[in-house]
Design brief:
By secondary structure, the protein is mainly beta. About 0% of the residues lie in helices and about 35% in strands.
């Protein structure tokens, strides 16, 4: 799966709020805006209640018997309010495959304005230098040829409500 950002409008189609940007899909009366490249989401005519799912880009694989790149992080913001305005969407680029002397590149971070970010995956380790371990990222890259491994990126979680 390519890195992407999806926005689900939890208000039914035909509501007075207008949303533009990304590719529009309508399923079961709900509108989904999907971005597979960077762009702008624009909300006009009021406040939108929405959920946003961001996926970071995958890391690149290591050279030789190198490890695979780690998966990008998936981040979900459920049922929050978006005021009228423009929101910048940045889709992270996939990590580059390594050459003979480097780890695979880390995947890029996917962001939804300043409200959300999903880290890219760590690059895979290479078997041709001292960079055997995979890099850290949304999910750590794999280690090379039986050598170490990357570790998953950890973030402090928010406090759960209503549980």
């Amino acid at each position: 799966m390519s890195p992407m950002l999806g926005i689900m409008d939890s208000q039914k189609s035909g509501h007075l709020v207008t949303v533009t940007g990304g590719t529009l899909y309508t399923v079961g009366g709900f509108n989904y805006r999907v971005f597979s490249s960077s762009g702008t989401l624009t909300v006009s005519g009021g406040t939108l209640t929405a959920s946003v799912c961001s996926i970071g880009a995958g890391g690149g694989g290591g050279a030789g018997r190198g490890g695979g790149g780690g998966a990008g992080e998936i981040d979900l913001l459920a049922s929050f309010s978006l005021a009228a305005g423009s929101y910048t969407v940045t889709i992270g680029a996939g990590g580059t495959a390594s050459n003979a002397s480097a780890r695979g590149g880390n995947g890029g971070t996917t962001t939804f304005d300043t409200l959300q970010s999903a880290l890219g995956g760590g690059g895979g380790g290479t078997d041709t230098s001292v960079l055997y371990d995979g890099a850290n990222g949304g999910s750590g890259g794999g280690g090379a040829g039986g050598w170490g491994s990357g570790s998953a990126h950890t973030q402090n979680g928010g406090t759960a409500s209503g549980s």
